[in-house]
Specification:
alpha+beta, Nucleoside Triphosphate Pyrophosphohydrolase, 3 domains, seven-stranded mixed beta sheet, six-stranded mixed beta sheet, about 40% strand, metal-binding, EC 3.6.1.22, hydrolase activity, magnesium, NAD(+) diphosphatase
Amino acid sequence: MEKQNKACYWFLFFQDKLLLKKNNGSYQIPYQENAPFGTDNSFEVVLDSSLSARAASLSHEITEDEQWIMIGLRASWNYLPLDWYKRAGKAHQLVHWDRNSRFCPACGKPLAWHTVISKYCDSCHQEFYPVISPAMIVLIRRGEEVLLVHARNFRGSFHGLVAGFLEVGETLEQCVRREVMEETGLTIKNITYFGSQPWPYPSGIMIGFFADYESGTIKLQDDELSAGSFFSKENLPELPAKLSIARRMIDWWLAGEPAEKPAF
């Protein structure tokens, strides 16, 4: 266990599972002076000005008992208050980056923490920051219908929205058009920004757009999508979980696209 001078919150992960402490039927991030289990080099994380916190990878998965449980980060949305789920997501992104950026990509020498969000190479004097992968996600309207798809990598039978990662040299709008054409064969118009959401699985940001159908017949990209169609509000398939920006976008559309957009 790592020794600390004062109590703090401990965001401890084994792969993508988060350690939670049981407390009379509820669950919370451990708060104590020392890490409750052995860690691989914990580090300070700044989650907001009022919290003292550290994060680290656990050397092994902790078996559930009367005091402790490990929950997948995505599933922790159902166990933690929203603010703590967000904090755990940021901590996980930093833990993932720390675990995968031990050495300088320029010269191969070990990196050391420089600030709470950067590392430094003493050999070639370069500073490095966490890599965040931007991905767009788009809700496509066709009159009173919406395009919903089932991706082959979805965990479950729900239908969501067309999404994909930004490529080098693209604008966000170009990415939206390209992904829609590649995955569905459709052309779209009237692309407008909706909002964004950190997506710490393991380290991304989802950038949401609305668009209108322009032309084309659905031709699914077989290696990406297993199903896709336009649906009316009265005939919807299973929808994504409420933790995702996809669900927020669908719910906003279902509500008639009110002026105020839901915040995450």
